Batch of 2 targets.
Target 1
Amino acid sequence: MLQFKGCKSIKSICVYNCGMGKIETIFDHSVTDVELTRFGGKEMFEWLKEHGHEPYTSQDDAYYAIGLLYAGRGDYQKAKIYFGKIKNKRLLTTLVQDIP
């Protein structure tokens, strides 16, 4: 079973970055295995764990992924909320303009 830093499963990944505390990720939003394919698939997260890497390097990266998760679900309102939380607005320049 895939685990990151004391978490019980892939569905409850905890990520700690530079002592800043827990980073909110797509795994806090009931991501399904099918939805994981948009983010490299379950195998990618398993590879990261096996090689001692964390899936997200910052909260902004994780918010970007959460926004994409909700956009993929068609919940553009919630996607905009997470995109709005991103402090480094340069991340948003790569966002495809298909969100109403």
Target 2
Amino acid sequence: MTDYILASLYLAAWILTLLWYQHRNRQIDAGTAIIASYIGYGIFSLLTLADDFFIYDELRLFPYIYLYVMLMIALTPTIYHHLSPPERIEPPRTRVLIVPCFIIILCGLLQLPGLVSNFSEGIVGLFLNADAGQEAYSEHIEEVRDAGSTINNLTAVLFNMVFDCGVFLTFYLLTLKKKNPLFITAMIIAVFIGMVIPVTKGQRGIVITCALTVVVGYLLFRRYMAPRINKVVQTVSAVAAIIIALPIGAITVSRFGERDGNIGVGGFINWYIGQGSIYFNNSVLNAGGIRYGDRTFNLFKRLIDPDTPKNYNERRAKYTKLEIDDYYFTTFVGDFVLDFGPVAAVVIFIVFNLYILTVIRPRDGTIKLHQLLAVYFTMCICMQGGMTLFMYSDGLNLKMVVFILLYVYLRYHDVLLQKFPLKKYEENR
């Protein structure tokens, strides 16, 4: 009974947070979506606690307090941005942004042949073969089991690297008065391809992560879009959601439908969605050691320490004494605590988010694109990892590299223009 009370109090804390936020904000935005998702995960936590099939350790109060505070620290830039929203976006005076857009479009189109060839076995097979989702997922696991030391598909790697920034740039292009419909359509198609490809491999998690990224991207830029564009985006998103939801449902049934006679698909769904805060509570703050950044900053650490594990198999073999590993979800907060310890993780969160707060302050009701990119990055971390783990870890550190490069270019390009202004420039507002 104590477990239900503590989990209910944690859920109630997020409900009260949402009520406070909506009272201050009075509109639906990315902050609303992120906090609402935490409420959803809390509800599923209660449902899986009620299932006797899954056994958890006794819950404690302090880990829930710690997790809530850390998530709120991570949410601070999002809350600050939306409670004092800028009226305008100052367009960057550069044409270089077209380069990452072309990379996204090109890499997306290069994925089409593989997508078409796998269509019958992948997507169609999900509805004709009850085991197709599990088989596709097992094949994918075998492919990535020893990944980390070689690149097998360069275009796929590039596409994954730029996907999140691609979503950001797609929605930014939709805010401009002078639009190139053909170019924007190509960007949207590329983003959609990025969401469909994982389905053919039996992967739900990546599809859901991509969808959550699109949600926060849209809600970040929605206030800057014309009403007609908003309606088009909502319609296209609804159609895309239906198209993707069907195979995702088929994958779920295929992977969980017959795993145990004592529990149905619903029980596994409750566990899958609701486990994050529970496993965090059970094991993260007293895991019996740390991973020294081997997951959250894997690629960066491998540059200075060749002995760093290259993939999750090697990492799990190295840290066998830990109470929990990345087989289970512990939220992105759990990833940082397991890598650096409870105290260091707090310092990292505070320093990082204070820095973001200092660089996103609008001036005279206007915000620059590099400032929005910084806000968007924190939103992606909160939205993507609230249920699962830190989604920019391991090989996906490359996504962080892309964010950093784009941010540095946009910010310091503006600085150079202020010192050496162009004689003639027509702003695209």
